Every structure is written in C-alpha cells, then in structure tokens.
Amino acid sequence: MKVTILGAGAIAGAHAEAIRALEAHGGPAGVELTHVVDVDAARAQEVAARFGVPHHGTDLQEVLDGGEADVVHVCTPPSVHLGAAVAALGAGAHVVVEKPAVLSLAEVDALAAAQRRAVDAGLPGRFTQIVQHRFGAGIGRLRGLLDDGTLGRPLVAQCETSWFRPPAYFDVPWRGRFDTEGGGTTMGHGIHQFDLLVAVLGPWEEVRAMAGRLARRTDTEDVSTALVRFANGTLATITNSAVSPRQTSRLRFDTEAATVELEHLYGYSDADWTVTPVAGREDVAELWAADVARTRGAGESGHLAQLVPTYRAFAEGRTPPVTLADTRSTLELAAAIYRSAFTGLPVLAGDIVAGDPFHASMAGSGTPWPAVKDVPV
To answer: How far is CA 314 from CA 30, 71, 96, 124, in A?
Structure first.
C-alpha cells in the first residue's frame, strides 16, 4: 500500500513514525510512505526529507489522480478534513483522519454519504479516525471485565481533561474558532478522553452541561463541564479545560466490584492504571495483574497501537476497528455538550437532527459570550 500524509505539521511525525514501524509490530508488509503534501512546499519537503519519503508536493488531487495513494492520512487543521476525506474516498483510497474528524454532525453525515457512494461504486476505500487511546491494553482489559460480568455494573464515572494552553497557543490563526477548529477545548482536547468514556460505557442518553470562556482570548470555550446519563444507567461527569496549570488526563469507573482508574497526560501504559476492589473482591485486582503480566506490560496507547489493526483491516478488505458510527457517536456527545451549555437545557440522544443549528455547527445558535472582535483588548 502506498501512503500519503496530507499536512506536514507537528502531528505528521507521529503518523510517519507509526507507518514506518507497522511491519515490525505485526502490521501488514509492503506499506510504504510515498508522498507528503502540504500547502507549504518547504514544510512538505522538510518532512519528506526527515522521514526518507521519496515524493512531496502541494496538491493532493494530483497524487490521487495519478493513482499514487492507497491510503491518505489527513493531518491538517480540522476545517480541511471533510474535503480531503471526500476526495480520497472518491479516488478509492482509505482515509485516516486526525481528531476531530470533522467540524460538525452535518459534516460527519456528509462524510458518511461519501463513504456510501464509494461502497456503491465498488471502491475499496474506507474511513477511520485516529482515537489512539482506545488501543491501549488497559481499555480492552476494562471492557472485557465489564462484558463478562467480573466487575458487575458500572455505576459512576469521571472523565477529566485538565490541560494548560497559554495565550500564545491560540495565536495560530485557526485555533479557538468554531469555523476552523470546530470548537474549543471540548473538541480540541477533551474529545480524546470522553471518546474513551463512550468506548467503555456505550450509548449515552442525556446531557446537561455548562461552558465558559474564562481566561483565553478565543471565540470558543476554554472550559466545559457536563453531566451525562448513559443507557446502562451509569452517571458520569466530564470536565474539559485548557487553563489548568497541573495537567492531567483522568478516567475513573466505579463499578459494583471495584474502582478502576487511569491517569496520564497524552498517552498511557499499563503502569498508569489502578484497580481498587471492594472488600471480598480481591480477585478483580488479581485478574487485572495477571493479564498485565501475561502481556508483559505491552499496553501503551498511541498511533502505532491503532494503526497496526487498522492496516490489517485495510489489507484484508475488512472494516477498520474505528468506524464512522463510532466517530459520529462521540461527535454527537460533543454537540450535545455545546447545545446544553449554550441553551441551558438538557439534551437527549437523537435530539440534534438536520435543521437544528447545532447539527450544522458546534456554535449552534451562538455562544453566551461575545465574539473576540467585539471584546476590547
């Protein structure tokens, strides 16, 4: 498979490193990174030289028209994702997109329509989004112990993304804007952790949320909080912050048999998990420890952990492990957080449909704070 990276910014390096390491870690043979494309020709050339990529340029369509891309990794700012993904799917290429996949539910529905057109035309390309934290061993271990009943029912969950982004971070023109980034810290940062929340707990039913622009000069929020009721009865809290000096990414699941916690920052291993069983259920901690020992601690999350099974699926003509439906479920939760925060009303799953302003944009009917251009310096 010939692979093109679109977008030569910082995250492109993580993709390039993972692509080069695929075969050595159980991925399919014959995957080659052949092109780097960026609107900045010099930047494309620099990344190509750093990773030994034979071709670089500024025009993705030229690569697609030449039949030179079997897989396209979209590593651009979010506003470019939809157009690039639709073009690649139309050319028969698989698409791997960084988060957030697109800017809104309307865009993810347009992406789904493009995927259906490709399938109907007999084209091989399939879409997937990077949500690399789903692929650490601990999440699979937790889901397994929930699915087989060992942990009993999940009752309470906490999901926290407390990060710090200084004012200069938002000097990049596309950051802190709904039209180019999709949203603020909810879409740009917290989506990693609450995607994991959804991956573990399944469908959600109701959201009540608040958001604020507390300290950064942006059009978007820099903090949001939410209460979420899941279909299985679990009650969860979600906090997303870009103004927290002590940074952490944290998930806690309180079940009938144990508390299972994960705390890390931008990636985790088995060492970042803690299991605290209730009295008399020490077997839960023993089962967890035995599985860690069995896998010899090889539980790191990251791009490589996701891309190995993803490329196996591409090579074998199977659906990749993260589907468009997975992507939409997490984006619908993000849209519900914005809608509840901006309207002051609870949001039920399925409420946000075509014609709703929050279907078209996470900004929906408008923020409760004025645009930056209307605020005195």
So the answer is: 12, 9, 11, 9
Residue 117: its H or E element: helix 105-120
Q: Chain centroid to CA 250: how far?
A: 16
As a whole number of angstroms, the distance between CA 79 and CA 188 comes to: 12
Gap between the Cα atoms of 19 and 37, Å rounded: 16
Where do the domains of the chain lie? 2-132+304-321, 134-300
Q: How far apart are CA 191 and CA 274, in angstroms?
A: 22
pLDDT averaged over 10-residue windows placed end to end, the chain, 377 residues: 97 98 96 98 98 98 98 97 98 97 98 97 97 96 97 98 98 96 97 97 98 97 98 98 98 98 96 97 96 82 97 97 97 98 98 98 96 81
pTM: 0.96
User: Where do the H-state alpha helices sit in 187-321?
Assistant: 191-201, 282-294, 303-316
- Please tell me the class of the 134-300 domain: alpha beta
Amino acid at site 177: R
Q: Was domain 2-132+304-321 assigned CATH 3.90.1150.10? A: no
Peptide bond into 100 cis (omega under 30): yes
